[in-house]
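User: Can you recover a sequence for this backbone? Please restate the input before giving your answer.

Assistant: Of course. Working from this structure:
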Protein backbone atom coordinates (compact mmCIF):
# COMPACT_ATOMS: atom_id res chain seq x y z
CA UNK A 1 0.00 0.00 0.00
CA UNK A 2 1.21 3.49 -0.75
CA UNK A 3 1.51 5.80 2.21
CA UNK A 4 -1.24 8.26 1.39
CA UNK A 5 -2.29 8.13 5.03
CA UNK A 6 0.05 10.89 6.14
CA UNK A 7 -1.66 13.35 3.82
CA UNK A 8 -5.09 12.67 5.20
CA UNK A 9 -6.80 15.45 7.07
CA UNK A 10 -6.05 14.77 10.71
CA UNK A 11 -6.56 18.36 11.83
CA UNK A 12 -9.61 18.89 14.02
CA UNK A 13 -12.27 20.85 12.16
CA UNK A 14 -10.42 20.39 8.83
CA UNK A 15 -13.78 20.29 7.08
CA UNK A 16 -14.49 23.94 7.98
CA UNK A 17 -12.30 25.24 5.20
CA UNK A 18 -13.04 22.40 2.77
CA UNK A 19 -15.28 22.38 -0.29
CA UNK A 20 -17.07 19.12 -1.04
CA UNK A 21 -18.35 17.80 -4.32
CA UNK A 22 -21.34 15.48 -4.26
CA UNK A 23 -21.30 12.55 -6.66
CA UNK A 24 -24.43 10.64 -7.57
CA UNK A 25 -22.53 7.58 -8.79
CA UNK A 26 -25.20 6.16 -11.06
CA UNK A 27 -25.10 9.30 -13.19
CA UNK A 28 -21.50 10.48 -12.98
CA UNK A 29 -19.34 8.38 -15.32
CA UNK A 30 -19.85 4.92 -16.76
CA UNK A 31 -16.66 2.98 -17.49
CA UNK A 32 -17.95 -0.32 -18.90
CA UNK A 33 -20.79 0.63 -21.22
CA UNK A 34 -23.69 -0.74 -19.17
CA UNK A 35 -25.23 2.73 -18.96
CA UNK A 36 -24.68 3.03 -15.20
CA UNK A 37 -22.01 5.19 -13.63
CA UNK A 38 -19.45 3.30 -11.56
CA UNK A 39 -16.40 3.60 -9.30
CA UNK A 40 -13.87 3.16 -12.09
CA UNK A 41 -15.65 5.94 -13.95
CA UNK A 42 -15.25 8.22 -10.94
CA UNK A 43 -11.53 7.43 -10.76
CA UNK A 44 -11.08 8.65 -14.34
CA UNK A 45 -12.65 11.99 -13.36
CA UNK A 46 -10.70 12.74 -10.20
CA UNK A 47 -8.41 15.12 -12.05
CA UNK A 48 -11.47 17.10 -13.08
CA UNK A 49 -12.49 17.47 -9.43
CA UNK A 50 -8.99 18.51 -8.56
CA UNK A 51 -8.98 21.16 -11.27
CA UNK A 52 -12.21 22.52 -9.84
CA UNK A 53 -10.49 22.80 -6.47
CA UNK A 54 -12.62 20.38 -4.46
CA UNK A 55 -11.21 18.94 -1.23
CA UNK A 56 -13.47 15.99 -0.90
CA UNK A 57 -16.23 13.89 -2.37
CA UNK A 58 -19.55 13.00 -0.84
CA UNK A 59 -20.35 9.75 -2.56
CA UNK A 60 -24.02 8.77 -2.57
CA UNK A 61 -24.57 5.09 -1.62
CA UNK A 62 -22.63 2.48 -3.60
CA UNK A 63 -23.39 -0.41 -1.24
CA UNK A 64 -25.21 -3.57 -2.24
CA UNK A 65 -28.80 -2.66 -2.86
CA UNK A 66 -31.82 -3.86 -4.84
CA UNK A 67 -32.16 -0.18 -5.89
CA UNK A 68 -35.77 0.33 -4.87
CA UNK A 69 -34.68 3.86 -3.94
CA UNK A 70 -31.47 4.14 -5.95
CA UNK A 71 -29.18 2.71 -3.33
CA UNK A 72 -30.87 4.30 -0.31
CA UNK A 73 -32.15 0.78 0.41
CA UNK A 74 -28.99 -1.03 1.47
CA UNK A 75 -28.76 -4.81 1.67
CA UNK A 76 -25.11 -4.93 2.75
CA UNK A 77 -23.25 -1.94 4.18
CA UNK A 78 -19.88 -3.62 3.92
CA UNK A 79 -20.02 -4.59 0.26
CA UNK A 80 -20.00 -2.66 -2.99
CA UNK A 81 -22.88 -3.29 -5.36
CA UNK A 82 -21.48 -5.09 -8.42
CA UNK A 83 -23.25 -2.47 -10.53
CA UNK A 84 -20.71 0.05 -9.22
CA UNK A 85 -17.66 -2.21 -9.13
CA UNK A 86 -15.81 -4.19 -6.49
CA UNK A 87 -14.26 -3.59 -3.09
CA UNK A 88 -10.88 -3.36 -4.83
CA UNK A 89 -12.27 -0.56 -7.00
CA UNK A 90 -13.47 1.22 -3.88
CA UNK A 91 -10.08 0.87 -2.23
CA UNK A 92 -8.45 2.19 -5.35
CA UNK A 93 -10.83 5.14 -5.43
CA UNK A 94 -9.96 5.99 -1.82
CA UNK A 95 -6.29 5.73 -2.63
CA UNK A 96 -6.41 7.69 -5.90
CA UNK A 97 -8.53 10.37 -4.26
CA UNK A 98 -6.05 10.54 -1.37
CA UNK A 99 -3.20 11.14 -3.81
CA UNK A 100 -5.05 14.21 -5.00
CA UNK A 101 -5.84 15.34 -1.47
CA UNK A 102 -9.50 14.53 -1.97
CA UNK A 103 -11.16 12.99 1.04
CA UNK A 104 -14.02 10.54 0.72
CA UNK A 105 -17.30 10.94 2.57
CA UNK A 106 -19.61 7.94 2.42
CA UNK A 107 -23.37 8.12 2.61
CA UNK A 108 -24.74 5.86 5.33
CA UNK A 109 -28.41 5.03 5.33
CA UNK A 110 -28.95 4.03 8.94
CA UNK A 111 -32.58 4.92 9.49
CA UNK A 112 -33.61 1.87 7.49
CA UNK A 113 -32.24 -1.04 5.51
CA UNK A 114 -33.46 -2.79 2.43
CA UNK A 115 -35.93 -5.63 2.93
CA UNK A 116 -33.23 -7.78 1.38
CA UNK A 117 -30.74 -7.06 4.15
CA UNK A 118 -29.80 -10.22 6.07
CA UNK A 119 -31.14 -8.68 9.29
CA UNK A 120 -34.59 -8.19 7.81
CA UNK A 121 -34.58 -11.58 6.09
CA UNK A 122 -33.96 -13.10 9.51
CA UNK A 123 -36.36 -10.74 11.28
CA UNK A 124 -39.36 -11.91 9.25
CA UNK A 125 -38.68 -15.57 9.97
CA UNK A 126 -40.22 -15.53 13.42
CA UNK A 127 -40.95 -13.37 16.40
CA UNK A 128 -38.14 -15.02 18.37
CA UNK A 129 -35.48 -14.71 15.75
CA UNK A 130 -32.52 -12.78 17.27
CA UNK A 131 -32.85 -10.17 14.51
CA UNK A 132 -36.57 -9.65 14.94
CA UNK A 133 -36.02 -6.77 17.35
CA UNK A 134 -33.75 -5.04 14.81
CA UNK A 135 -36.92 -3.57 13.27
CA UNK A 136 -40.04 -1.86 14.56
CA UNK A 137 -43.02 -4.23 14.83
CA UNK A 138 -46.56 -3.87 16.14
CA UNK A 139 -49.19 -6.56 16.35
CA UNK A 140 -52.29 -6.10 14.26
CA UNK A 141 -54.84 -7.43 11.84
CA UNK A 142 -54.48 -7.14 8.12
CA UNK A 143 -56.10 -3.94 6.84
CA UNK A 144 -55.97 -2.15 10.21
CA UNK A 145 -52.52 -0.58 10.66
CA UNK A 146 -51.50 0.32 14.23
CA UNK A 147 -51.98 4.04 13.53
CA UNK A 148 -52.14 6.49 10.64
CA UNK A 149 -48.47 7.35 10.30
CA UNK A 150 -47.78 8.09 6.64
CA UNK A 151 -44.71 7.16 4.65
CA UNK A 152 -42.78 9.96 2.97
CA UNK A 153 -43.07 8.18 -0.35
CA UNK A 154 -46.83 7.84 0.02
CA UNK A 155 -49.32 5.51 1.72
CA UNK A 156 -49.26 4.05 5.21
CA UNK A 157 -45.94 3.73 7.02
CA UNK A 158 -47.01 0.25 8.19
CA UNK A 159 -46.66 -2.91 6.15
CA UNK A 160 -48.29 -6.17 7.17
CA UNK A 161 -46.46 -9.50 7.33
CA UNK A 162 -49.20 -12.15 7.48
CA UNK A 163 -46.94 -14.97 8.67
CA UNK A 164 -46.09 -12.97 11.81
CA UNK A 165 -49.43 -11.24 12.33
CA UNK A 166 -47.41 -8.06 12.67
CA UNK A 167 -46.77 -4.79 10.92
CA UNK A 168 -43.32 -3.30 10.40
CA UNK A 169 -42.74 0.42 10.25
CA UNK A 170 -41.24 2.16 7.19
CA UNK A 171 -40.80 5.90 7.08
CA UNK A 172 -39.94 5.81 3.35
CA UNK A 173 -40.90 3.14 0.77
CA UNK A 174 -42.17 -0.25 1.95
CA UNK A 175 -38.92 -1.71 0.62
CA UNK A 176 -37.12 0.32 3.33
CA UNK A 177 -38.02 -1.04 6.80
CA UNK A 178 -36.89 1.24 9.64
CA UNK A 179 -34.25 -0.01 12.03
CA UNK A 180 -35.09 -0.15 15.70
CA UNK A 181 -32.58 2.29 17.17
CA UNK A 182 -33.85 1.66 20.69
CA UNK A 183 -32.17 -1.75 20.46
CA UNK A 184 -28.54 -1.28 21.60
CA UNK A 185 -27.43 -4.23 19.46
CA UNK A 186 -28.59 -2.34 16.36
CA UNK A 187 -26.66 0.76 17.33
CA UNK A 188 -23.52 -1.27 17.99
CA UNK A 189 -23.81 -2.92 14.56
CA UNK A 190 -24.06 0.49 12.92
CA UNK A 191 -21.02 1.89 14.76
CA UNK A 192 -19.10 -1.15 13.66
CA UNK A 193 -19.92 -0.40 10.04
CA UNK A 194 -18.50 3.09 10.54
CA UNK A 195 -15.32 1.63 12.06
CA UNK A 196 -15.03 -0.73 9.12
CA UNK A 197 -15.06 2.14 6.61
CA UNK A 198 -12.78 4.35 8.68
CA UNK A 199 -10.24 1.54 8.60
CA UNK A 200 -10.39 1.66 4.84
CA UNK A 201 -9.37 5.30 4.86
CA UNK A 202 -12.70 7.07 4.61
CA UNK A 203 -12.66 10.55 6.20
CA UNK A 204 -16.28 11.13 6.96
CA UNK A 205 -19.91 10.24 6.60
CA UNK A 206 -23.14 11.76 5.51
CA UNK A 207 -25.87 10.30 7.68
CA UNK A 208 -29.06 9.88 5.73
CA UNK A 209 -32.41 10.86 7.27
CA UNK A 210 -30.72 11.31 10.63
CA UNK A 211 -33.42 13.44 12.19
CA UNK A 212 -35.91 10.56 12.26
CA UNK A 213 -33.83 7.93 14.06
CA UNK A 214 -35.07 8.91 17.54
CA UNK A 215 -38.74 8.43 16.66
CA UNK A 216 -41.61 7.32 18.87
CA UNK A 217 -43.98 5.61 16.44
CA UNK A 218 -46.76 5.08 18.95
CA UNK A 219 -47.01 8.77 19.68
CA UNK A 220 -46.44 9.44 15.97
CA UNK A 221 -43.41 11.60 16.69
CA UNK A 222 -41.07 10.86 13.80
CA UNK A 223 -38.68 13.76 13.19
CA UNK A 224 -36.97 15.18 16.30
CA UNK A 225 -38.04 12.23 18.38
CA UNK A 226 -37.36 11.95 22.10
CA UNK A 227 -34.18 9.88 21.73
CA UNK A 228 -32.62 11.67 18.78
CA UNK A 229 -29.84 13.60 20.48
CA UNK A 230 -29.07 10.81 22.93
CA UNK A 231 -28.36 8.45 20.01
CA UNK A 232 -26.31 11.03 18.14
CA UNK A 233 -24.19 11.77 21.19
CA UNK A 234 -23.56 8.10 21.75
CA UNK A 235 -22.59 7.55 18.12
CA UNK A 236 -20.38 10.60 18.15
CA UNK A 237 -18.43 9.49 21.21
CA UNK A 238 -18.10 5.96 19.81
CA UNK A 239 -16.92 6.79 16.30
CA UNK A 240 -16.62 10.48 15.45
CA UNK A 241 -14.57 12.02 18.24
CA UNK A 242 -11.31 11.70 16.28
CA UNK A 243 -12.14 14.46 13.81
CA UNK A 244 -14.11 12.28 11.41
CA UNK A 245 -16.50 14.44 9.46
CA UNK A 246 -20.15 13.68 10.25
CA UNK A 247 -22.92 15.52 8.45
CA UNK A 248 -26.49 14.64 9.26
CA UNK A 249 -29.42 15.11 6.94
CA UNK A 250 -32.02 16.95 9.01
CA UNK A 251 -35.05 18.24 7.12
CA UNK A 252 -36.76 19.17 10.37
CA UNK A 253 -33.96 21.23 11.93
CA UNK A 254 -34.38 24.85 12.93
CA UNK A 255 -31.61 27.16 14.11
CA UNK A 256 -31.79 26.42 17.86
CA UNK A 257 -31.75 22.71 17.23
CA UNK A 258 -28.89 23.06 14.76
CA UNK A 259 -26.86 24.66 17.54
CA UNK A 260 -27.36 21.45 19.47
CA UNK A 261 -26.50 19.20 16.53
CA UNK A 262 -23.34 21.14 15.68
CA UNK A 263 -22.31 22.58 19.03
CA UNK A 264 -18.66 23.49 19.25
CA UNK A 265 -17.88 21.03 22.06
CA UNK A 266 -18.09 18.41 19.32
CA UNK A 267 -20.43 16.09 21.21
CA UNK A 268 -22.69 15.59 18.19
CA UNK A 269 -21.95 16.32 14.52
CA UNK A 270 -19.69 18.45 12.36
CA UNK A 271 -22.68 19.98 10.59
CA UNK A 272 -26.13 19.18 9.29
CA UNK A 273 -27.96 19.62 6.03
CA UNK A 274 -30.96 21.77 6.89
CA UNK A 275 -33.71 22.60 4.44
CA UNK A 276 -35.57 25.63 5.75
CA UNK A 277 -34.78 27.64 2.60
CA UNK A 278 -36.06 24.80 0.47
CA UNK A 279 -39.68 25.64 1.33
CA UNK A 280 -39.70 29.25 0.09
CA UNK A 281 -41.21 28.38 -3.28
CA UNK A 282 -43.52 25.57 -2.16
CA UNK A 283 -47.05 25.38 -0.86
CA UNK A 284 -48.51 22.89 1.59
CA UNK A 285 -46.70 19.98 -0.05
CA UNK A 286 -43.49 19.95 -1.99
CA UNK A 287 -45.39 19.40 -5.25
CA UNK A 288 -47.14 22.76 -5.07
CA UNK A 289 -45.14 25.48 -6.79
CA UNK A 290 -45.16 29.07 -5.53
CA UNK A 291 -43.17 32.04 -6.80
CA UNK A 292 -39.84 32.50 -5.04
CA UNK A 293 -40.23 34.89 -2.10
CA UNK A 294 -36.76 36.46 -2.07
CA UNK A 295 -37.36 38.52 1.07
CA UNK A 296 -38.23 35.35 2.93
CA UNK A 297 -35.29 33.46 1.47
CA UNK A 298 -32.94 36.22 2.61
CA UNK A 299 -34.42 36.23 6.08
CA UNK A 300 -34.03 32.47 6.40
CA UNK A 301 -30.45 32.29 5.15
CA UNK A 302 -29.48 35.28 7.26
CA UNK A 303 -30.94 33.65 10.37
CA UNK A 304 -28.82 30.54 9.76
CA UNK A 305 -25.72 32.64 9.12
CA UNK A 306 -26.02 34.77 12.23
CA UNK A 307 -27.63 32.04 14.31
CA UNK A 308 -24.75 29.57 13.99
CA UNK A 309 -21.85 32.03 13.75
CA UNK A 310 -19.46 31.22 16.59
CA UNK A 311 -21.77 28.62 18.13
CA UNK A 312 -22.25 25.90 15.50
CA UNK A 313 -21.43 25.31 11.87
CA UNK A 314 -23.40 25.58 8.62
CA UNK A 315 -23.31 23.50 5.49
CA UNK A 316 -23.99 25.47 2.31
CA UNK A 317 -25.82 23.83 -0.55
CA UNK A 318 -28.30 24.76 -3.24
CA UNK A 319 -28.68 21.39 -4.91
CA UNK A 320 -28.46 17.71 -4.14
CA UNK A 321 -29.79 14.46 -5.57
CA UNK A 322 -33.21 15.08 -4.02
CA UNK A 323 -33.66 18.60 -5.37
CA UNK A 324 -34.19 20.17 -8.78
CA UNK A 325 -31.45 22.17 -10.52
CA UNK A 326 -31.01 25.56 -8.89
CA UNK A 327 -30.56 27.54 -12.10
CA UNK A 328 -33.97 26.30 -13.30
CA UNK A 329 -35.50 26.84 -9.90
CA UNK A 330 -34.23 30.22 -8.61
CA UNK A 331 -32.30 31.44 -11.63
CA UNK A 332 -33.21 31.64 -15.29
CA UNK A 333 -32.49 28.72 -17.58
CA UNK A 334 -33.43 30.77 -20.64
CA UNK A 335 -31.66 33.93 -21.83
CA UNK A 336 -29.81 34.57 -18.55
CA UNK A 337 -28.71 31.01 -17.94
CA UNK A 338 -24.99 31.81 -17.62
CA UNK A 339 -25.39 34.97 -15.51
CA UNK A 340 -27.97 33.50 -13.16
CA UNK A 341 -26.02 30.26 -12.63
CA UNK A 342 -22.95 32.31 -11.74
CA UNK A 343 -25.01 34.61 -9.53
CA UNK A 344 -26.22 31.62 -7.51
CA UNK A 345 -22.65 30.37 -7.21
CA UNK A 346 -21.51 33.73 -5.82
CA UNK A 347 -24.43 33.76 -3.38
CA UNK A 348 -23.61 30.31 -2.04
CA UNK A 349 -19.84 30.63 -1.87
CA UNK A 350 -19.88 33.99 -0.12
CA UNK A 351 -21.50 32.67 3.04
CA UNK A 352 -20.00 31.06 6.13
CA UNK A 353 -20.09 27.26 6.22
CA UNK A 354 -18.85 24.26 4.31
CA UNK A 355 -19.97 24.37 0.67
CA UNK A 356 -21.24 21.30 -1.15
CA UNK A 357 -21.47 21.41 -4.94
CA UNK A 358 -23.70 18.79 -6.53
CA UNK A 359 -22.38 17.21 -9.72
CA UNK A 360 -23.27 19.37 -12.70
CA UNK A 361 -24.16 22.38 -10.56
CA UNK A 362 -20.71 23.74 -11.45
CA UNK A 363 -21.78 23.58 -15.12
CA UNK A 364 -25.19 25.16 -14.60
CA UNK A 365 -26.97 21.94 -15.55
CA UNK A 366 -30.73 22.46 -15.82
CA UNK A 367 -33.96 20.61 -15.08
CA UNK A 368 -35.26 18.18 -17.66
CA UNK A 369 -38.86 17.59 -18.75
CA UNK A 370 -39.25 13.83 -18.88
CA UNK A 371 -42.42 11.98 -19.73
CA UNK A 372 -43.59 9.70 -16.95
CA UNK A 373 -42.14 6.55 -18.57
CA UNK A 374 -38.73 8.20 -18.59
CA UNK A 375 -38.88 9.00 -14.87
CA UNK A 376 -36.95 6.60 -12.68
CA UNK A 377 -37.68 7.85 -9.18
CA UNK A 378 -39.95 5.80 -6.90
CA UNK A 379 -41.19 9.01 -5.28
CA UNK A 380 -42.34 10.47 -8.61
CA UNK A 381 -44.19 7.30 -9.58
CA UNK A 382 -45.90 7.01 -6.19
CA UNK A 383 -46.91 10.68 -6.33
CA UNK A 384 -48.33 10.30 -9.83
CA UNK A 385 -50.29 7.14 -8.99
CA UNK A 386 -51.75 8.70 -5.85
CA UNK A 387 -52.64 11.85 -7.82
CA UNK A 388 -54.46 9.91 -10.53
CA UNK A 389 -56.31 7.90 -7.91
CA UNK A 390 -57.43 11.17 -6.32
CA UNK A 391 -58.79 12.33 -9.68
CA UNK A 392 -56.13 14.98 -10.39
CA UNK A 393 -55.36 16.27 -13.89
CA UNK A 394 -52.40 14.30 -15.34
CA UNK A 395 -51.00 17.43 -17.02
CA UNK A 396 -50.89 19.22 -13.67
CA UNK A 397 -49.23 16.24 -12.04
CA UNK A 398 -46.50 16.35 -14.68
CA UNK A 399 -46.00 20.09 -14.16
CA UNK A 400 -45.33 19.33 -10.50
CA UNK A 401 -42.87 16.58 -11.44
CA UNK A 402 -41.00 18.96 -13.75
CA UNK A 403 -40.84 21.61 -11.06
CA UNK A 404 -39.62 19.57 -8.10
CA UNK A 405 -39.20 15.89 -9.10
CA UNK A 406 -35.93 14.32 -7.96
CA UNK A 407 -34.98 13.05 -11.42
CA UNK A 408 -34.22 16.65 -12.43
CA UNK A 409 -30.96 16.39 -10.54
CA UNK A 410 -30.22 12.81 -11.51
CA UNK A 411 -29.66 13.05 -15.26
CA UNK A 412 -26.18 12.01 -16.41
CA UNK A 413 -23.26 14.34 -15.95
CA UNK A 414 -22.63 16.38 -19.10
CA UNK A 415 -18.96 15.95 -19.90
CA UNK A 416 -18.79 16.89 -23.57
CA UNK A 417 -20.77 17.15 -26.79
CA UNK A 418 -20.19 13.53 -27.87
CA UNK A 419 -22.85 10.80 -27.73
CA UNK A 420 -24.65 10.65 -24.36
CA UNK A 421 -22.64 13.67 -23.20
CA UNK A 422 -19.58 11.43 -22.74
CA UNK A 423 -21.31 9.69 -19.84
CA UNK A 424 -21.63 6.24 -21.39
CA UNK A 425 -20.99 4.27 -24.56
CA UNK A 426 -24.14 2.28 -23.87
CA UNK A 427 -27.73 3.21 -23.12
CA UNK A 428 -27.94 5.46 -20.07
CA UNK A 429 -30.17 4.21 -17.23
CA UNK A 430 -31.88 7.61 -17.25
CA UNK A 431 -32.04 9.98 -20.24
CA UNK A 432 -29.37 12.59 -20.80
CA UNK A 433 -30.64 16.16 -20.79
CA UNK A 434 -30.92 17.09 -24.50
CA UNK A 435 -29.11 20.39 -23.89
CA UNK A 436 -25.75 18.63 -23.39
CA UNK A 437 -24.24 19.78 -26.72
CA UNK A 438 -24.20 23.33 -25.34
CA UNK A 439 -23.98 22.73 -21.58
CA UNK A 440 -20.99 20.51 -20.83
CA UNK A 441 -17.68 20.46 -18.99
CA UNK A 442 -15.52 20.39 -22.10
CA UNK A 443 -17.06 23.62 -23.39
CA UNK A 444 -16.60 25.37 -20.05
CA UNK A 445 -13.28 24.39 -18.57
CA UNK A 446 -11.17 26.82 -20.58
CA UNK A 447 -13.72 29.60 -20.87
CA UNK A 448 -13.05 32.28 -18.22
CA UNK A 449 -16.70 33.40 -18.34
CA UNK A 450 -18.19 29.94 -17.80
CA UNK A 451 -20.14 28.70 -14.81
CA UNK A 452 -17.34 26.18 -14.19
CA UNK A 453 -14.67 28.90 -14.08
CA UNK A 454 -16.84 30.87 -11.70
CA UNK A 455 -17.02 27.98 -9.21
CA UNK A 456 -13.31 27.26 -9.60
CA UNK A 457 -12.44 30.94 -9.00
CA UNK A 458 -14.79 31.14 -6.03
CA UNK A 459 -13.17 28.14 -4.38
CA UNK A 460 -9.76 29.73 -4.79
CA UNK A 461 -11.01 33.10 -3.52
CA UNK A 462 -12.58 31.54 -0.41
CA UNK A 463 -9.35 29.80 0.47
CA UNK A 464 -7.28 32.93 0.18
CA UNK A 465 -9.67 35.19 2.13
CA UNK A 466 -10.22 34.25 5.77
CA UNK A 467 -13.00 36.83 5.93
CA UNK A 468 -15.05 34.51 3.67
CA UNK A 469 -14.31 31.52 5.87
CA UNK A 470 -14.81 33.05 9.29
CA UNK A 471 -16.16 36.56 8.97
CA UNK A 472 -19.48 37.51 10.51
CA UNK A 473 -22.54 38.16 8.39
CA UNK A 474 -24.85 41.09 7.93
CA UNK A 475 -27.84 41.13 5.59
CA UNK A 476 -28.26 44.41 3.71
CA UNK A 477 -31.59 45.82 2.52
CA UNK A 478 -33.68 42.96 3.97
CA UNK A 479 -36.85 44.24 2.28
CA UNK A 480 -35.39 44.61 -1.19
CA UNK A 481 -37.43 42.15 -3.28
CA UNK A 482 -34.94 41.61 -6.09
CA UNK A 483 -31.45 42.00 -4.66
CA UNK A 484 -29.75 39.72 -2.12
CA UNK A 485 -26.83 41.65 -0.65
CA UNK A 486 -24.74 40.93 2.42
CA UNK A 487 -21.52 41.85 4.14
CA UNK A 488 -18.91 39.57 5.63
CA UNK A 489 -16.56 41.14 8.12
CA UNK A 490 -13.36 39.99 9.84
CA UNK A 491 -10.89 42.34 11.50
CA UNK A 492 -10.40 45.25 9.13
CA UNK A 493 -11.55 43.29 6.08
CA UNK A 494 -15.00 43.56 4.63
CA UNK A 495 -16.51 41.70 1.69
CA UNK A 496 -19.69 42.88 0.03
CA UNK A 497 -21.68 40.26 -1.88
CA UNK A 498 -24.40 41.54 -4.22
CA UNK A 499 -26.71 39.20 -6.16
CA UNK A 500 -29.58 40.31 -8.34
CA UNK A 501 -32.44 37.85 -8.78
CA UNK A 502 -34.05 39.98 -11.47
CA UNK A 503 -34.18 39.61 -15.26
CA UNK A 504 -34.38 43.42 -15.51
CA UNK A 505 -31.98 46.19 -14.57
CA UNK A 506 -32.29 47.07 -10.89
CA UNK A 507 -31.12 50.06 -8.88
CA UNK A 508 -28.67 49.32 -6.10
CA UNK A 509 -26.51 51.73 -4.17
CA UNK A 510 -23.17 50.48 -2.93
CA UNK A 511 -22.75 50.93 0.81
CA UNK A 512 -20.27 53.62 1.90
CA UNK A 513 -16.65 52.79 1.45
CA UNK A 514 -17.09 50.32 -1.42
CA UNK A 515 -16.77 52.80 -4.32
CA UNK A 516 -13.11 51.94 -4.87
CA UNK A 517 -13.13 48.44 -3.44
CA UNK A 518 -11.37 45.56 -5.18
CA UNK A 519 -13.56 43.25 -7.26
CA UNK A 520 -12.93 39.67 -6.22
CA UNK A 521 -15.31 38.20 -8.76
CA UNK A 522 -18.15 39.32 -10.97
CA UNK A 523 -20.46 37.74 -13.57
CA UNK A 524 -20.33 40.75 -15.90
CA UNK A 525 -17.37 42.70 -17.25
CA UNK A 526 -17.00 46.17 -15.73
CA UNK A 527 -19.55 47.95 -13.57
CA UNK A 528 -22.67 49.86 -14.65
CA UNK A 529 -24.92 52.41 -12.92
CA UNK A 530 -27.61 49.81 -12.29
CA UNK A 531 -27.42 46.07 -11.68
CA UNK A 532 -27.83 44.23 -14.97
CA UNK A 533 -29.99 41.06 -15.19
CA UNK A 534 -28.82 38.57 -12.55
CA UNK A 535 -25.67 40.62 -11.99
CA UNK A 536 -23.56 39.49 -9.04
CA UNK A 537 -20.19 40.42 -7.60
CA UNK A 538 -18.00 40.31 -4.53
CA UNK A 539 -16.07 43.40 -3.47
CA UNK A 540 -13.29 43.51 -0.88
CA UNK A 541 -12.20 46.51 1.12
CA UNK A 542 -9.55 46.63 3.79
CA UNK A 543 -9.10 49.11 6.58
CA UNK A 544 -12.81 49.04 7.43
CA UNK A 545 -13.72 50.45 10.82
CA UNK A 546 -14.77 47.86 13.31
CA UNK A 547 -18.56 47.66 13.51
CA UNK A 548 -20.39 46.70 16.69
CA UNK A 549 -21.34 43.04 16.61
CA UNK A 550 -25.01 42.33 15.91
CA UNK A 551 -27.11 40.04 18.10
CA UNK A 552 -28.07 36.84 16.27
CA UNK A 553 -31.59 37.09 14.82
CA UNK A 554 -34.27 34.97 16.49
CA UNK A 555 -35.09 32.09 14.17
CA UNK A 556 -38.58 30.92 13.37
CA UNK A 557 -39.90 27.41 13.85
CA UNK A 558 -40.31 25.61 10.58
CA UNK A 559 -42.30 22.77 9.12
CA UNK A 560 -41.39 19.20 9.62
CA UNK A 561 -40.41 16.90 6.81
CA UNK A 562 -43.93 15.49 6.59
CA UNK A 563 -44.71 18.39 4.31
CA UNK A 564 -42.06 17.12 1.92
C1 LIG B 1 -32.69 10.81 2.07
C2 LIG B 1 -32.00 10.68 0.73
C3 LIG B 1 -33.02 10.31 -0.30
C4 LIG B 1 -33.63 9.00 0.10
C5 LIG B 1 -34.19 9.05 1.52
C6 LIG B 1 -34.50 7.68 2.03
O1 LIG B 1 -33.59 11.85 2.09
O2 LIG B 1 -31.32 11.85 0.42
O3 LIG B 1 -32.47 10.24 -1.58
O4 LIG B 1 -34.67 8.67 -0.79
O5 LIG B 1 -33.29 9.62 2.42
O6 LIG B 1 -33.32 6.98 2.28
CA1 LIG C 1 -21.03 0.95 -15.46
Amino acid sequence: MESYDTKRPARKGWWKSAVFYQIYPKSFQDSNGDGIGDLNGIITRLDYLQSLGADGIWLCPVFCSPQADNGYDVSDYRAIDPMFGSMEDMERLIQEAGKRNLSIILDLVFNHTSREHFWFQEAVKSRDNPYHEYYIWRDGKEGTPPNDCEAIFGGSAWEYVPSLGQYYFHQFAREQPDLNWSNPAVREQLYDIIRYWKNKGVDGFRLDALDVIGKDVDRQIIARGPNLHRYIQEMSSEVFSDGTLAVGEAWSADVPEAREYTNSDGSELSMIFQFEQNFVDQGETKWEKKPLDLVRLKKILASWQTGLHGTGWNSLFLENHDLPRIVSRWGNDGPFWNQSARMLAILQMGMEGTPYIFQGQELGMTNCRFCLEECRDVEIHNFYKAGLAAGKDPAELMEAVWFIGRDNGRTPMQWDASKNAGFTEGTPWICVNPNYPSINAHAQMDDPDSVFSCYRDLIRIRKSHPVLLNGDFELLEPDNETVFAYLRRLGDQEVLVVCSFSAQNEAFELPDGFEDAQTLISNYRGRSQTLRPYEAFMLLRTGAEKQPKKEPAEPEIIKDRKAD
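That completes the design. The pocket of calcium ion (ligand 2) is lined by residues 30-32, 34, 36, 38 (CB under 6 Å).
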